[in-house]
Amino acid sequence: MSLVIPGYRVLIKPEPIEKETESGIVIVRENEKLEEAKREYGVVAFIGEGCWRDNNGRWIGNAGPWCQVGDKVIYSKYGGKFVTDPDDPDQKYVVVNDQDILAVVVQEK
Known about the structure:
This protein is mostly beta strands. The protein contains one helix and eight strands; from the N terminus they run E-E-E-H-E-E-E-E-E. It has one domain: 10 Kd Chaperonin, Protein Cpn10, Chain O, CATH 2.30.33.40. Strands 6-7-1-4-5-8 form a six-stranded antiparallel β-sheet, with no helix packed on it. It starts with 8 loop residues before the first strand and ends in a 5-residue tail after the last strand.
């Protein structure tokens, strides 16, 4: 897939919602709109070139980007727009503003 994400937007691949029954059966519910809206976790797939920059193109706070492609992030629950990959209709993404990324999930060793 070839995308151009302008400005301060970030493309995130949401993690599928899995529910486990009491007996241990995992139920994946991919197509329910209410469940989609509740997603908050995902993996950064693409970062726009204007993310975390001011109007002059300088890093905000001179810190640089605080998340990278491949990072698992928590984003605002209703802060983005769900889009479908035109090459793979089963693959969904969410486009959020850089400020809608609330945290980066760090795996401890």
